[in-house]
Amino acid sequence: MGRSKCFRAKHIALNKLRGTVGEHYAHLRPYCAELTRVDSDGRFEFLLDDFGQLQGFFIGFSGLKQGFLSGCRPIIGLDGCFLKTFLGGTLLTAVAKDGNNQMYPIF
Known about the structure:
The longest helix has 16 residues, at about 5-20. By secondary structure, the chain is an alpha+beta fold. It has four helices and five strands. It has helices at about 5-20, 20-25, 30-40, 60-70; strands at about 45-50, 55-60, 75-80, 90-95, 105.
């Protein structure tokens, strides 16, 4: 068996196990609807470009916002990491310092 045939077989098997990117993106709208149902005071929004393609997904739980307002220092910072998938991207979160000098996620 050739090397390229092995790589193709691996790619097909992984797609069957993990699913395709389109299948995963199809689950975002029901996920957002469920988040809104569970946390009605939270803020959950899609960021779309002019062509309707997904650019980002904002998740803001109301409990984290209330915790920030009641017990954190009034300084907001950003913490992020690069996503190491074939799609790439960046994951950003807003953080603050709590009373124990620990990072507290706001959004």
